[in-house]
Amino acid sequence: MSGPVTDADAPAAAAVDHDTAEDGLEILDSREAKVGNLQVRRALPRRTHRTVGAWCFADHAGPVSVDAAQRVDIGPHPHMGLQTVTWLVAGELVHRDSLGSEQEIRPGQLNLMTAGQGVAHAEETAGGYEGLFHGIQLWVAQPDETRHGDPAFEHHAELPQLELDGATATVFVGDLGAAVSPARRDTQHVGAELAVRGGRATLPVRRDYEHALIVLDGKVSVDGRMLEPGHLGYLGLDRDEVVIGSADPATVILLGGVPFPEPIFMWWNFVGRSQNEMDAAYAGWQEADNRFGAVHSELARVPAPRPQWSRQP
Ligand code: MN
Question: What is the pLDDT of residues 237-262, one digit of tens each?
């Protein structure tokens, strides 16, 4: 369920945007996009907010019914310079990558793949699974210190939880209050799922992080405004807490981090710093060289689109 980024999401390159929310929550509409046969709401990148900390991509998929005929199947495709974070609230997926990993994932678990200089993976509906599929695919931009490094994969079946007044937070990366995720982290950032019970929940957050909320299910109010699926609620820096209100139970993703210090260049499934890096990655995937490796999957390899800057008129 990792989708390619296009110019419709945000230009491939732009200066780092360190805007803080003026006063209170800023709501950005997600863009509808298609990943394989899956309809998604792309909350990041947006033109005015390309990153939240190192979080640079967010596709909210479902809820949708899957069965033998209607599956979530994303064939082998490459990544570089980023980590993929797969988080489900319903359904099951099988991840296969060019490191030889084969890992089923269920709700409440984390699949974290670090691409570094290059990796390839495929994600598909677990054999025989029928029912609802609902989740979010996130990318984390890697810093210069690690982005040319080796690829890696981690699965975390158990993650720490933080009990709040009106919610339970499951911290999949970074820390929130006393809950610290064991997942690899190359920059200062946090990702958590909030199971809001209804009423009021107060999240302890760091002042040096910018934060954003993505509602997966239900509706919540923040700073007097309503947030629902299809929105990115951008909260900016300099908060000690975020207060979430809701009449009914809701599921919300909290993302945060120290504003990414350098401009990134995003194209297709790659994060880098320049067009030349994209050209090299494009050529490597199209020529099926050893850079990204091979994935043992029965699904067809996803071809790269030709970079828009090298298309003939
Ligand atoms: Mn992917």
Answer: 999 999 999 999 999 999 999 999 99
- CA separation for the pair 124, 38 (Å, rounded): 11
Max Cα-Cα span within the chain: 59
Q: What is the DSSP string of 89-115?
A: EES-EEEEETTS-EEEE-TT-EEEEE-
Residue 94 is predicted with a pLDDT of 97
Structural domains of the chain, with CATH: 26-259 (2.60.120.10)
* Average pLDDT over every residue of 9-22: 57
Q: 2: CA distance to ligand 1 center in Å?
A: 4
CA 111 – CA 126 distance, rounded (Å): 14
| Residue carrying the six token digits 């800023």 | 26
Interval 122-174: pLDDT, tens: 999 988 899 999 999 999 999 999 999 999 999 999 999 999 999 999 999 99
Other Cβ atoms closer than 10 A to 127: 10
Interacting residues of 298 by C-beta distance below 8 A, sequence separation 6+:
none
> In Å, how far from its chain's centre is CA 268?
14
Q: How many angstroms is it from 122 CA to the middle of ligand 1?
A: 7
Length of the chain: 313
Give 45 Cα–ligand 1 centroid separation in angstroms.
15
CA 181 to chain centroid: 16
Tell me the Cα Rg of the chain.
Answer: 18
Residues whose CB falls within 8 Å of the CB of residue 198, separated by 6 or more in sequence, listed in order = 166, 246, 247, 248, 249, 250
Cα(248) to centroid(ligand 1), Å:
33
Of 54, 258, 76, 75, nearest to 139 (Cα)?
A: 54
**What ranges in the chain are assigned the alpha helix state H?**
275-286
Residues with a beta carbon under 5 angstroms from ion ligand 1: 2
pLDDT above 50 for 18 = no
